């Protein structure tokens, strides 16, 4: 536990015991810093953490006061509303924008608030490398046979066991190992749809899904999506009734960029709607392990009785992004997906498969995940509190239930691409909202990454982006 976490917990304890009561003013940041012999930054972070917990509220020029919510009422819900995309299908052409943006995000040691990738500092890279090195010295483990689809039997067994431990029975023979979840989504989409077909997606949606649709020469239709409940099923049903929809691509758990957790009853209703019309669903589950709650989220796959859900996932967001190991559970399309995997990349390298399988078997994957979840949950609260405090009036944010991404709606006058360029000049990156739609929507939205350990540099970068956004909002 860091120093600012300890201070926040200490003050929270005083609030819970009514030493501090509703409306009481906390010590000023400077007073607390001097009295405790700690830095002003440490006190500020502690107060921001308390604010994110709904225990204190800041008043400009006055300080921090115990909030009315300290008595136990739930924090306020996300301010974001249901999205309203156009109900028409469109060709997809976002890859150039995404590629140029990602290149700038990864260049010149910029502060990675716009990065789509998790910070690698929490990943057990050295352990995985040792397992890969040991496997590389054993010639009996390196035959081409185990690299061919569906994948190495040892990893297939470990993935199946992982699902079983979470209450979902999976036959190892159904699993297809892929080069990351991106390949899994691409070949699953190729298995169920053809060029020119219409694919339903959430709005906003993760651009990797749009890339798959663009690559296949298909069209996307965006479906209204709620920032806490997920895709609007009634709206999707109306779209299906009005035009042919070949497939649906969704991310029901900790969606990128909104971060919501779709309730079980809505997951069941979505699968039932798809089954009624015989429409396959490609489910992206790459963030499933990064939940903030105590229980593992369910999947669309667990409600599937007709084999129409093609579930895709990977270890890139939870264990290592360096090895690019993903998989698909393609249901009734299993044989076609295996064939497409073979035609697409022939094999998935054995060494990273074996390294991950050894880690899953020997090294406490759940312990590793608990550390990541705790870190991300805390940093999500800090990032949200910082944005709400330092960004211009009218800013709205998502309330992530997992993952490491925050979706931010800025005042209407703020152009996200202009903000992106101005921030980049300051050595800071953000993810402009235009990357997450096939239309010209989300022009005043950005995505922020909070996976990097909280630091003075991150804090200053968030404040700087807020000041740039405020200047953009004032601009005619």
Automatic annotation (TrEMBL):
PROSITE patterns: HTH_GNTR
Domain annotation HTH gntR-type: ranges: 1-69
InterPro entries to which the protein is assigned, alphabetical: Aminotransferase_I/II_large (IPR004839), HTH_trans_reg/aminotransferase (IPR051446), PyrdxlP-dep_Trfase (IPR015424), PyrdxlP-dep_Trfase_major (IPR015421), PyrdxlP-dep_Trfase_small (IPR015422), Tscrpt_reg_HTH_GntR (IPR000524), WH-like_DNA-bd_sf (IPR036388), WH_DNA-bd_sf (IPR036390)
Source organism per UniProt: Achromobacter veterisilvae
EC annotation from Swiss-Prot or TrEMBL: 2.6.1.39
Protein name: 2-aminoadipate transaminase
Gene3D superfamilies: Aspartate Aminotransferase, domain 1, Type I PLP-dependent aspartate aminotransferase-like (Major domain), Winged helix-like DNA-binding domain superfamily/Winged helix DNA-binding domain
Domain of life: Bacteria
Family, per entry: In the C-terminal section; belongs to the class-I pyridoxal-phosphate-dependent aminotransferase family.
Gene name, Swiss-Prot/TrEMBL: lysN_7
Alphabetical UniProt keywords: Aminotransferase, DNA-binding, Pyridoxal phosphate, Transcription, Transcription regulation, Transferase
GO molecular function terms attached to this record: 2-aminoadipate transaminase activity; DNA binding; DNA-binding transcription factor activity; pyridoxal phosphate binding
Coiled coil start-end: none
């Amino acid at each position: 536990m860091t120093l600012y976490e300890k201070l926040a917990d200490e003050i929270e304890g005083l609030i819970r015991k009514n030493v501090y009561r509703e409306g009481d003013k906390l010590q000023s940041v400077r007073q607390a810093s001097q009295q405790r012999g700690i830095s002003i930054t440490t006190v500020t972070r502690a107060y921001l953490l308390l604010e994110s917990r709904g225990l204190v509220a800041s008043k400009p020029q006055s300080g921090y006061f115990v909030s009315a919510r300290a008595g136990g009422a739930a924090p306020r819900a996300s301010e974001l509303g249901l999205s309203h995309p156009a109900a028409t299908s469109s060709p997809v052409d976002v890859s150039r924008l995404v590629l140029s943006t990602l290149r700038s995000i990864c260049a010149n040691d910029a502060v990675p608030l716009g990065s789509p990738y998790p910070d690698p500092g929490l990943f057990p890279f050295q352990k995985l490398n040792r397992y890969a090195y040991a496997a590389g010295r054993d010639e009996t483990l390196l035959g081409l046979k185990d690299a061919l689809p569906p994948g190495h039997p040892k990893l297939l067994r470990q993935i199946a066991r992982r699902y079983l431990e979470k209450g979902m029975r999976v036959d190892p023979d159904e699993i297809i190992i892929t080069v990351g979840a991106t390949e899994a989504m691409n070949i699953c989409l190729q298995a169920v749809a053809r060029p020119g077909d219409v694919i339903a997606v959430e709005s906003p949606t993760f651009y990797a899904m749009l890339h798959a649709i663009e690559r296949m020469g298909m069209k996307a239709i965006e479906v209204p999506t709620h920032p806490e409940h997920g895709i609007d099923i009634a709206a999707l049903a109306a779209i299906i009734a009005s035009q042919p929809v070949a497939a649906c691509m969704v991310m029901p758990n900790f969606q990128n960029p909104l971060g919501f957790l779709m309730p079980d009853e809505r997951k069941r209703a979505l699968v039932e709607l798809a089954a009624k019309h015989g429409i396959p669903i490609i489910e992206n589950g790459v963030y499933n392990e990064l939940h903030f709650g105590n229980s593992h989220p369910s999947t669309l796959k667990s409600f599937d009785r007709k084999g129409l859900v093609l579930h895709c996932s990977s270890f890139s967001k939870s264990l290592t992004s360096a090895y690019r190991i993903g998989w698909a559970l393609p249901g009734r399309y299993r044989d076609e997906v295996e064939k497409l995997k073979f035609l697409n990349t022939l094999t998935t390298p054995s060494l990273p498969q074996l390294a991950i399988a050894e880690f899953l078997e020997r090294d406490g994957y759940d312990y590793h995940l608990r550390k990541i979840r705790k870190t991300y949950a805390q940093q999500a609260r800090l990032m949200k509190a910082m944005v709400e405090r330092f960004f211009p009036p009218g800013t709205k944010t998502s309330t992530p239930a997992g993952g490491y991404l925050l979706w931010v709606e800025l005042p209407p006058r703020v152009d996200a691409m202009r903000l992106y360029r101005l921030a980049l000049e300051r050595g800071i990156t953000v993810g402009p909202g235009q990357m997450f739609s096939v239309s010209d929507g989300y022009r005043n939205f950005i995505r922020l990454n909070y996976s990097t350990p909280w630091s003075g540099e991150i804090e200053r970068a968030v404040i700087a982006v807020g000041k740039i956004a405020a200047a953009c909002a004032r601009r005619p």
